[in-house]
Amino acid sequence: MPTPPPPPLRYPAPLRPGDRIGVTAPSSGVPARLRARLDVALDDVRARGYEVVVGACMDGTGHVSAPAAERAAELTAMLCDPAIRAVVPPWGGETAIDLLPRLDWERLRAAEPTWLVGFSDLSTLLTPLTLLTGVATLHGNNLMDTPYAVPDGLLSWLDVVAAPRGHRFMQVPPGRHRSTGWDDYAADPGVRTCALDAPGRWTRLDGTGHVMASGRLIGGCVEMLCNLTGTPYLDTAAFARRTAPDGLLVYVEACGDDAFTICRNLHGMRLAGFFDHAAAVLIGRTAAPDAPSLSQHEAVLDALAPLGVPLLADVECGHVPPFLPLVNGARAHVVHTTEHSALTQMLE
């Protein structure tokens, strides 16, 4: 069973031109018809001056890229290789949970910190890695999203991994998001413009008034993290006691489950103590369906209102573009008023 690390939190060294970035698929790989998009994304990473190392676990013919033991071994090897400074998957998937008992946690704790980047099913790995190794991880856009132009006010994961320890950066919502589906990478592998065709800003669910809250960031995808509650892989309370005496800024986002399911999952996470040290909760904008008598916003309020902390919804940290990268473990400060919203992160 994994054991928690001592404080303080550790940040990977900032990437510089010439550094290597590992690409592996701990969950779903890339089918042949989408390989052209993968090539475009890899070329964009190389254009930043980085060398790219593509692993063997990339097959996209099934729902996972390789057997669990092989995926775990490749991910561990990349995260522990001192020549690889960041690891990024093509995208998420469904069952990365099968890697958790197969990862070499002692080896990961002993290794020099390396950035692990991703979201969706990668939350299953990102969040436990920060909680159990004390190394910051990056909940941000995946490799296949990298070619998209970044809206004003936001950053790319490539910007964050190049930032030095102690760096402070603020992101503000662009006020627009995508209201429809995903681009067809098979038909247009080089697409770089993500149409943000709908207006929208952050929404306070628990009441009115301005919000100012601070804490260490931790969170991820509801559908993935709910399966880890009550296990040694998701002990946010212990993490808060070690590293965040002033509390946590917890973020969650729903991928596709209906409002009833998300409501049940969030209730379960709250009852298991996932939100116990939250100073505020950020909820990602979602395209997941409402239920006949319960909206996604109402589902969050039903489950999390008993926390008695600000609940800010429609944050750009989920499956609805654009993407606001969040560093698990970073100190952060959120501000929300009727005129302005912003999230500042500090790598300290």
Question: How would you portray this structure in words?
Answer:
With 348 residues, the protein is α/β, with parallel strands linked by helices. 24% of the residues lie in helices and 21% in strands. It contains 9 helices and 16 strands. The protein has helices at residues 35-47, 68-80, 105-110, 123-133, 157-161, 222-225, 236-243, 259-271, 296-304; strands spanning 20-23, 51-54, 84-88, 115-118, 137-139, 168-171, 176-177, 198-199, 203-204, 211-221, 248-253, 278-284, 311-315, 326-328, 331-336, 341-346. The strands form 3 sheets. An 8-stranded mixed beta sheet has the order 6-16-15-10-11-12-13-9. Strands 2-1-3-4-5-14 form a 6-stranded mixed beta sheet, with helices on both faces. Strands 7-8 form a two-stranded antiparallel sheet. It is globular, with a radius of gyration of 19 Å. It starts with 19 loop residues before the first strand and ends with a strand. The model has no long low-confidence stretch (mean pLDDT 96).
